[in-house]
Specification:
single chain; 250 residues; mainly alpha; 63% helix
Length: 250
């Protein structure tokens, strides 16, 4: 019976994780109305989804801080150790995915537009389509990179099903031969690729990019602790985010 409950918990967490990612993708580039109809346009980043709040930049920054703290703290070994003292170890990753889904949905639900000028707006329909295509490509890179390692393991399905892989072999498949963190590379592309860089969208992009660099700083430390000189050599040879360039080789 416990096995069924654990598997169900993992599946629900996985489904909510994917749903929150899709919702965030639609939200961040004002695509909710395009994808689901105008009844859902209020969920777009540049629309109000409720009463306006004072100091929207502060409010939005707090939403990003919640996401950043959740995503980073829950990924640290000391927190995982603490969490697995309170629940079965096989549910730790699914709980991380579930918490991430909640943090993303809080952003989508409660984000406040920033009433000000835009940094840029692209009006040409073909150019807008191309930019939104680049935006979706960024997320495509992110999702593809999870499959190059182990999608089901990264999203907690493998563990919740009771078949967790304990193999810690260091591997660099496909994208990982050219950049150490292609998952974050895809997000970086998506955050910059928008036909309407409003002030609110810029706050989102800045917050997510800051999180990427802070999160990767701690992730790199953990990887060095786990793989030692193997990872140090990899770090010397391969850029962090941008392939073929030294930029991002931190």
């Amino acid at each position: 019976m416990a096995h069924i409950i654990y598997a169900l918990y993992g599946f629900i967490s996985y489904a909510l994780g994917l749903a929150s990612l899709v919702a965030f993708m639609l939200f961040a580039n004002n695509l909710f109305g395009v994808a689901l109809g105008e009844n859902y346009a209020s969920l777009n980043i540049d629309h109000y989804n409720g009463p306006a709040k004072p100091y929207p930049v502060f409010w939005n920054s707090m939403l990003l801080l919640v996401f950043g703290l959740q995503h980073s703290i829950m990924a640290r070994p000391w927190f995982k150790h603490l969490l697995t003292r309170l629940m079965p170890e096989r549910l730790e990753r699914s709980t991380y995915i579930l918490a991430t889904a909640v943090a993303l949905l809080l952003i989508v639900q409660f984000w406040q537009p920033v009433a000000s000028h835009t940094f840029w707006t692209v009006n040409d329909p073909t150019a807008r389509l191309a930019i939104n295509g680049l935006y979706l490509l960024g997320y495509g890179i992110t999702v593809a990179a999870t499959y190059m390692l182990s999608h089901n393991h990264l999203f907690g399905l493998t563990q919740s099903m009771g078949s967790g892989d304990t193999d810690k072999t260091f591997r660099t498949p496909l994208f990982y031969k050219y950049m150490r963190h292609p998952i974050q590379t895809g997000i970086l592309i998506a955050m910059l690729a928008t036909p309407d860089m409003t002030y609110g969208r810029a706050v989102l992009a800045a917050g997510m990019i800051v999180y990427i660099f802070i999160g990767l700083y701690f992730e790199e430390k953990n990887l060095i602790e786990e793989f030692g000189d193997t990872y140090r050599d990899y770090k010397k040879r391969v850029p962090a985010l941008l392939p073929f360039l030294k930029v991002g080789r931190f």
